[in-house]
Amino acid sequence: MDEIAPEYDVVVLGTGLTECVLSGVMSVKGKKVLHIDRNDHYGGEAASVNIESLFKKYGNYNKGEEPWKKYGRINDWNVDLVPKLLMANGELTNILVSTDVTRYLEFKQIAGSYVQQGSGAKATVAKVPSDASEALRSPLMGLWEKRRAKKFLEWVGAFQEDNPSTYGGLDLNRCTMREVYEKFGLEATTRDFIGHSMALYQTDEYMNEKGAAKDTVQRIRLYVNSMARYGKSPYIYPLYGLGELPQGFARLSAIYGGTYMLNTNIDEIEMEGGKVSGIKATMKEKSDEGEGMKFSTKTKKIIGDPSYFPGKVQVVGHLLKAICILTHPVAYTDNSDSAQLIIPQSQVGRKNDIYIAIVSSAHNVCPKGYYIAIVSTIAEGSSNHHLELQPGFERLGKIEEKFMGPPIPLYEPLESGRNDNIFISKSYDATSHFETTTDDVRDIYRRAEQEELVVEGLREGDTLVGQE
Amino acid sequence: MTSRVSTGTRPGARFAQFKLVLLGESAVGKSSLVLRFVKDHFDDYRESTIGAAFLTQTISLDDSTTVKFEIWDTAGQERYKSLAPMYYRNANCAVVVYDITQASSLDKAKAWVKELQRQANENIIIALAGNKADLVADHPDKRAIATADAEAYAREAGLLFFETSAKTSENVRELFTAIARKLPLEQAGARNMRANPRQGVDLRPEAPGTQGGGACNC
């Protein structure tokens, strides 16, 4: 086909969120982008799928049966494959606003943020206090502890990175978070919910790392400020599911001239002197009987997700995930239409937290009366993965349908890409939000473009977007 | 994310906003049709779409009824059949364009109509536009698709039908006005209509009332 240009500034492989954000910002900055996905849909691992696709993906039904038929219209379902939420004040929100991708999407609050204390029959689930006054009302702490927590949260609220007089006499560049907790006299259970449900660390390693206290304080501030933005929880969520996010950034890229090709396999990555020089590929729809359309084009840079470069990535862990369909809200979440519930690792004798993300028809991801709860954690053993998630399942009550595959490998690139100009993204990790995804976006941009990504002002002074 | 419905300044005045999507093969003149409608402007040598997020244009149907179209361009994503489902999401109406001088373009248009019926709202209003009518005005031999054939197909499939010219503006306004007249204005306040005010939260930092509690209007 004549429309494929002989050369592109960058070829992007995979339409996951990381790739689509990069494709979008690079197109806006005037780069000529060719964006390819081998699948017939956008989103890759970050897609949202309908109920029929979900059953077919996990294969948990007998041949000849069509169990999805009892769940209403299949396209009323948009089930996320990645259990994440957006921090209202986080970097992804910032990028969405700066690029005007918010025009294509609508967001709703997640109704509540909860944490578990204790385990089994004695477990209590309570709202995560988000400021000093909520700390005073929280059932998570005794009377004296509440006052200590209030003092701590007031200190966090007043903290300014560039003003050491707000450090409270602590050497935050060197001390550990454990020392900070000790200074405020906080008990282990309080440290647990602060570290895991506010700072959103998934293990306890952060407590002993020298100089990491400042990062912890910043993470708590992000939580508190995100919470203050809309009031109910620090999280927001796009209507119709997370799969809308990559689509929105892909549209941004296309509007600025990015070329999109789904159903396209990469046949060869051409190299010259150790660096990328081009690609050979074939576009072919599944229903297409013929050989498809073969083409080649030159490029000096490739950005792609790990699945396109199996030889250039390493496994850094395994994510366990179970997608559960419910017909009731989750107990102790105030009948919320949505929630994030964190079970800190120490409460259930683990090293990694268990997360439960709950959304429902309020977010146009399923028909009325249904709830989708995704239970996830990092695998700690090589078997009995179902048992590892069990404390999460216990919170859910009756489960209509459970989709759980083998542990999902988490990949990271082996090299920075500076040698061969192939820049590879990381897998979506086990964190509850997209902050590490946007860190990866910035990191790849820095590696590929040798400058910092500045999204502020991207929409200003151009005439392409915003012709209202 | 401004309010999508208002009662207007006069009592009884109606104002509603609808999402309209454009579909059709590359180079049939989708963007040109919209530019004619929105800006009353035509470029002979327009390059393929580097579009806008969306364009808007308002039509007054009568003294008290105003319809505002939020028009989404494919941004070229149709070229390799890579339109995202988001494009069809909540579209109230669609203009499917073909080129009356290109025989294959009507077949492509028919395929897009099928795709719309599969992906979009059930009650989406679809108009079929045979564009480039100016090319056959002086050279009738250039016509590759008979008006009667396209019209018969449109009738059978329940589509509005016009032959248009973005270049001379023939039937362009008529096309959009006919769509506006068919839109369910009475239900403009009904749920799930794009004509509704956005139900979600406003992410812009400068948005009023985003500080502190009670900011959510959901």
TrEMBL record, chain A:
Coiled coil: none annotated. It comes from the Eukaryota. It holds the Pfam family GDI. InterPro entries: FAD/NAD-bd_sf, GDP_dissociation_inhibitor, RabGDI. GO terms for cellular component: cytoplasm. GO terms for molecular function: Rab GDP-dissociation inhibitor activity. Signal peptide: none annotated. One of its GO terms (biological process) is vesicle-mediated transport. Belongs to the Rab GDI family. PANTHER family: RAB GDP DISSOCIATION INHIBITOR, RAB GDP-DISSOCIATION INHIBITOR. This is Rab GDP dissociation inhibitor. It comes from Cladonia borealis.
From TrEMBL, chain B:
One of its GO terms (molecular function) is GTP binding. InterPro entries: P-loop_NTPase (IPR027417), Small_GTP-bd (IPR005225), Small_GTPase (IPR001806). GO terms for biological process: protein transport; vesicle organization; vesicle-mediated transport. This is GTP-binding protein ypt5. Keywords: Cell membrane, GTP-binding, Lipoprotein, Membrane, Nucleotide-binding, Prenylation, Protein transport, Transport. PANTHER family: PTHR47978. Belongs to the small GTPase superfamily. Rab family. It is a lipid-anchor. Residues 198-218 are annotated as: Disordered. The keyword Cell division does not apply. It comes from Cladonia borealis. GO terms for cellular component: endosome; plasma membrane. It holds the Pfam family Ras. Gene3D superfamilies: P-loop containing nucleotide triphosphate hydrolases (3.40.50.300). It is found in: Cell membrane.
